[in-house]
């Protein structure tokens, strides 16, 4: 492998800085990691030994890969880990996993507001139709 160019090195350094800012500096409002990274870059900027440059560049790429992978891992854990979800979300995902869909829960506040406004939601309309069909008005008892 050829010696990494200064553009490649600077690009890798910028990517590492971006990851450090996302994961450490912004959440904690502590620039310690960012400052330490800048100092390490400035200390090694004048290195001229090709073998040392290759090693430093490889180490920087490894650090970047680790930081990116650990951030993505945290995001996936937060998204899919059932231990971090509330119970309603966990039940909904379990139902979807086996091909079911949970029914829409009745909300008395929303129903009262719809009733007061005179507008009927599609759910209320469908429920009313089912009730009317079950208890037909023409004297026949439905459903028995």
- Please count the beta strands (DSSP E, at least 2 residues each): 0
> Mind describing the biggest β-sheet?
none
The pLDDT mean sits at 82
Give the tally of structural domains: 2
Low-pLDDT ranges: none
Treating each run of at least 4 consecutive H or I residues as one helix, how many helices?
Answer: 6
Q: Beta-sheet strand percentage?
A: under 5%
Q: Secondary-structure element order, as H and E? A: HHHHHH
* Secondary-structure class: mainly alpha
Helix content: over 70%
What is the radius of gyration computed over CA atoms, rounded to a whole number of angstroms?
A: 30 Å
Shape: rod-shaped
Q: Termini separation (Å)?
A: 82 Å
Q: What are the main properties of this structure?
A:
144 residues; mainly alpha; 6 helices; 0% strand; Complex 1 LYR protein; Fmc1
């Amino acid at each position: 492998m050829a010696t990494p160019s200064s553009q490649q090195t600077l690009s890798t350094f910028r990517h590492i800085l971006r990851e450090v800012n996302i994961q450490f500096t912004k959440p904690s409002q502590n620039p310690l990691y960012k400052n330490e990274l800048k100092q390490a870059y400035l200390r090694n900027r004048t290195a001229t030994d090709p073998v040392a440059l290759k090693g430093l560049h490889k180490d920087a790429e490894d650090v970047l890969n680790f930081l990116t992978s650990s951030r993505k891992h945290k995001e996936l854990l937060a998204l899919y880990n059932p231990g971090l979800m509330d119970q309603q979300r966990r039940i909904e995902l379990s139902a979807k996993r086996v091909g079911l869909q949970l029914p829409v829960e009745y909300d008395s506040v929303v129903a009262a507001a719809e009733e007061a406004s005179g507008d009927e939601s599609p759910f209320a309309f469908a429920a009313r139709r089912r009730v009317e069909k079950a208890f037909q008005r023409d004297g026949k008892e439905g459903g028995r």
